[in-house]
Amino acid sequence: MVDRRTLLLRIVQAFSATGALFLAYPFVKAWLPTFNQQHTLEVDLSDLKIGEIKQVSWLGRNVMIVRRTPEEISDLVEDKHELKDASSVHSRQPALAANQYRSLRPDVFVVYSNCTHLGCEVSASGTAASFNCPCHLSEFDAAGRVYKSAVAPVNLEVPDYQFMSRKILLLVKRA
Ligand code: FES
After folding, report:
1. Separation of CA 121 and ligand 1 centre (Å)
2. Type and span of the H or E element at 4
3. What is the pLDDT of residues 110-120, one digit of tens each?
4. Which helix (H) or strand (E) covers residue 131, if one does?
5. How far is CA 38 from CA 2, 35, 63, 64, 105, in A?
6. pLDDT tens for residues 122-149?
7. One domain for residues 101 and 114
8. How much distance in Å is there from the Cα of 131 to the middle of ligand 1?
9. Same domain, 23 and 88
10. 26 and 107, same structural domain?
11. Which atom of ligand 1 lies closest to the CA of 118?
């Protein structure tokens, strides 16, 4: 049986522990990552002209946002026998980009800039008609689709995103 003194001691200990938790909460919260902020990135496209590319850093990777020219868009609908994965069946993209443009809007292409071979940063040649990897010279077309002659196994990866408006893009990392 618990005597009165022990009971009082336990009650005081319980209150102390609860108080300590309340005091610690703001400090612990400040150390925790704010997932909503970190897992989205808003990108303003109002200054992105046709044929230009914007690059942003997001979650430790670089993302290229390309404003395609009308010629690049029409070129993408042609049959491409020289591509390894023309329909992107074996490549990574969200459902919104599972089409011949690999994008939600034909005129705006969003893609991670890591080569799918060993991860080097690819660069766009000229406008965005193609992407080239400097490490082992893999080439990709204006939709990030890899050519058969390249060592990169699949197309460049497309991140998940949505448009908040015509000029505002939101990169989204979904669980
Ligand atoms: S890392 Fe790009 S081709 Fe090897």
Report:
1. 8
2. helix 4-31
3. 999 999 999 99
4. strand 130-132
5. 51, 5, 15, 18, 25
6. 998 766 578 999 999 999 999 999 999 9
7. yes
8. 12
9. no
10. no
11. 1
Q: Give how many domains the chain has, as a whole number.
A: 2
Rounded to whole angstroms, the Cα distance separating 80 from 144 reads 13
- 112 and 129 in a common domain: yes
Name the residue range of residue 120's domain.
Answer: 37-172
Please give the number of the atom of ligand 1 that sits closest to the Cα of 133: 2
Q: Could you tell me the CATH number of the domain that includes residue 41?
A: 2.102.10.10
Task: Find the range with the poorest average confidence among 8-12, 44-48, 93-97, 121-125.
Answer: 8-12
Taking the whole predicted model, whether its pTM rises above 0.90 is answered as: no
Residue 110 sits in the same domain as residue 64 = yes
Residues 113, 153, single domain; the answer is yes
pLDDT of residue 35: 47
Interval between CA 21 and ligand 1 midpoint (Å): 51
What's the CA gap between 101 and 152, in Å, rounded?
20
Same domain (yes/no): 123, 70: yes
Which of 133, 139, 148, 156 is the pocket-test mutation for ligand 1 (most atoms within 8 Å of CB)? Answer: 133
List pocket residues of ligand 1, CB cut-off 6 Å.
Answer: 115, 117-118, 120, 133, 135-136, 138, 151-152
